[in-house]
């Protein structure tokens, strides 16, 4: 192993807050898909940790393996090499320590908001009497109190995504994985949802790993940003976000916000130019 790779591993691990134990550990994880036309590498070996309560955002070009990485952390597919550990346990199958929020809300149109939120409880055969009060608390937290009996088609896009966040949190997972959760929303709604998500994460104290194509969204939300390379993806750079929380939309004009956004953008421009 080259000295450069060893140093990158050390830098990635050192970037996690030292005072907190890692909740997620990614150790030499790669992924290659087997097809009739031959092997298709998706991810080169990746190493990083995520601490308890940390909000980490991954940015990278389309097709670089971001979603593949989230699926492996959730236990939905195995890595080709390396190991993923959640709270010290190797992940070899789907597990109950994660909630997942997708790009679209994916609510079932024939189920009410409450019944959609309670789906993980039903699937996991958890006691309804214990988790229904939690579902109501979550709906109140995201501003959907009074909408429990409404149907998805009666909600705006932002309200549907709020309900999907409640669904991901209802069984009280340790980790929330978010795959472009606001990509389908208009710009103004997306900004409001970023503020809302920051508040929800602060109040629930969940560990969050979010992937996005939006650099401003990454800087607004993250404690730490991992920048991925073109496919086969790997971690090309790590940036700590030097902005205090909670953040309001006024931070978009903060010189530190602008500088970090430009730094990350230059990283992608340099890659696209081949320099």
Structure explained in plain terms:
This protein is α/β, with parallel strands linked by helices and 275 residues long. The protein has a single domain (3-97, 173-273), classed as Rossmann fold (3-Layer(aba) Sandwich), CATH 3.40.50.300. The protein is 37% helix and 24% strand. It has helices at residues 3-14, 66-73, 113-117, 119-123, 128-141, 157-169, 187-204, 215-221, 255-273; strands spanning 22-35, 38-51, 55-59, 81-86, 89-90, 98-101, 175-179, 207-212, 224-228, 235-240. Helix 7 (187-204) links the parallel strand 7 (175-179) and strand 8. The chain is globular, with a radius of gyration of 19 Å. The relative contact order is 0.16.
The gist of it:
The chain is α/β, with parallel strands linked by helices.
């Amino acid at each position: 192993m080259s000295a450069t790779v060893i140093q990158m591993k050390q830098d990635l691990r050192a970037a996690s807050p030292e005072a907190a134990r890692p909740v997620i550990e990614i150790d030499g994880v790669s992924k290659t898909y087997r097809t009739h036309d031959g092997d298709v590498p998706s991810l080169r070996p990746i190493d990083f940790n995520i601490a308890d309560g940390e909000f980490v955002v991954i940015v990278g070009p389309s097709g670089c393996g971001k979603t593949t990485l989230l699926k492996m952390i959730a236990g939905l597919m195995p890595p080709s090499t390396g190991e993923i550990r959640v709270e010290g346990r190797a992940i070899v199958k789907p597990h109950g320590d994660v909630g997942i929020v997708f790009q679209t809300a994916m609510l079932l149109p024939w189920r009410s908001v409450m019944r959609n939120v309670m789906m993980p409880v039903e699937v996991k055969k958890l006691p309804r009497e214990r988790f229904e009060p939690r579902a109501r608390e979550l709906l109140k937290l995201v501003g959907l109190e009074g909408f429990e009996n409404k149907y998805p088609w009666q909600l705006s896009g932002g309200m549907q995504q709020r309900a999907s966040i409640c669904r991901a949190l209802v069984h009280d997972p340790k980790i929330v994985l978010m795959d472009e959760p606001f990509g389908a929303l208009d710009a103004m709604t997306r900004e409001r949802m970023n503020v809302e998500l920051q508040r929800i994460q602060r109040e629930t104290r969940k560990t969050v790993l979010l992937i996005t194509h939006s650099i401003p969204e990454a800087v607004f939300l993250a404690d730490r940003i991992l920048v991925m390379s073109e496919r086969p993806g790997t971690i090309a750079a790590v940036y700590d976000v030097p902005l205090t929380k909670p953040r309001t939309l006024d931070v978009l004009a903060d010189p530190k916000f602008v500088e970090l956004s430009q730094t990350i953008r230059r990283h992608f421009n340099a890659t696209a130019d081949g320099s």
